[in-house]
């Protein structure tokens, strides 16, 4: 038989295996893996890696933050993602006060529809534990959102311990997963006030307002709360050695304790905040960048399998016109960094090429685990027959230097300016169609589809 498309002679890389084979695609799905497959169309991938399309579990596209919103919209942000080999993003729904969660999901979906270039799913933010909020959880899960975002900090979002317990219990009753931004609110308020009282309001003081211990304490406490009601938990954007240690300690006792880190916490450090003038504002994010020892601890946690996903927390704001809302005071700087486009290549270059993680771990961390944990596997994040033919063809020999000019993110800087890349995607396929070909996008606006997430899979085993 002849397939719609055959990718010939690539080195297939999955979360568990690496082998040379042809990959046959029919009707947008992976149809066969074998040798000497014949196709109506063919792609020669000899010398190249063929891996599942990357899944970014943590992005914020056109997200309202205070007086502004993140600068990438559903078209520009997903297009940039596609250039970098990401074929699925998981974004967030935040209901307005008094708005129903399902209604908020419908609104958020309508922003993405007809604009997203790649497929998308959502996490639902829970900002309270009121009876009517928790009662909506089954309807939200039914609508395809099975993970629930919570915060230990931020006015309007911060939950008390008892609210956490109620949410953890309710969400786990329906087989959903609570995910949490963990930083101790009182510690942050204490240091922020001290800095403001002493007139230290430049962006370089931002990291002092949110020390690593604030993250360590909050992660430890949340893990205890989850244990108390025997609920699974996923900690987002772990930034510190102490945070990673709290997670690993809990994992000795329990399986369903999961953690994510982000590219910026692996590669960038607080030294960036010493840049002159207002430049430090480019690196203001919550949690802040840490020390190089923290980066090393996070790489180690990826290597030993205690942290299972790498997201971007892509939340871009222009340096001119948005970050400068905080020119008088660092607390007014919209927090967030761009990074949706270069994740796969940065992690390969800084992780695989430097021997910190294996080739298969790279695929697990960036492609497979996010899909598995959030109930999108095997449709996404795999090369199994029957899966969506979302595929990245990656040239491990291609060298590039990151510059703002080469990226497609709708923002006026990149925090990775000058980073040397070893390896870059040369083709991105979404459901069997080439959408990016050697740096050129192919007529793709609105091709992305909404994905309903299934039950989260929380008992992942660390890879060897
Ligand atoms: Zn985030």
List keywords for this structure.
464 residues, TIM Barrel, 9-stranded mixed β-sheet, 8-stranded parallel β-sheet, 13 helices, binds zinc ion
Outline the secondary-structure elements.
Layout: E1 2-13, E2 18-26, E3 29-34, E4 38-44, E5 49-52, E6 54-56, E7 64-65, E8 68-69, H1 74-83, E9 86-93, H2 101-112, E10 119-125, H3 131-135, H4 137-142, E11 147-151, H5 161-173, E12 177-181, H6 185-197, H7 206-209, H8 212-228, E13 233-235, H9 241-253, E14 257-262, H10 263-267, H11 292-303, E15 309-311, H12 343-352, H13 359-373, E16 391-401, E17 420-430, E18 433-437, E19 440-441
Parallel strand pairs: 1-4, 1-5, 6-9, 9-10, 10-11, 11-12, 12-13, 13-14, 14-15
Antiparallel strand pairs: 1-2, 2-3, 5-16, 7-8, 16-17, 17-18, 18-19
Helix pairs in contact: 5-8, 8-9, 9-11
The protein binds zinc ion.
Detailed description of the structure:
By secondary structure, the chain is of the alpha/beta class. The protein has a domain at 54-373: Alpha-Beta Barrel (TIM Barrel), CATH 3.20.20.140. 29% of the residues lie in helices and 24% in strands. Strands 1, 2, 3, 4, 5, 16, 17, 18 and 19 form a nine-stranded mixed sheet that branches. It has an eight-stranded parallel sheet with strand order 6-9-10-11-12-13-14-15. A two-stranded antiparallel ribbon has the order 7-8. Strand 11, helix 5 and strand 12 form a beta-alpha-beta unit. Helix 9 (241-253) packs parallel to helix 11 (292-303).
Using the CA coordinates, give the radius of gyration: 21 Å
For the termini, the CA-CA separation is 37 Å
- Detail the poorly predicted runs: none
CATH superfamily membership of one domain = Metal-dependent hydrolases
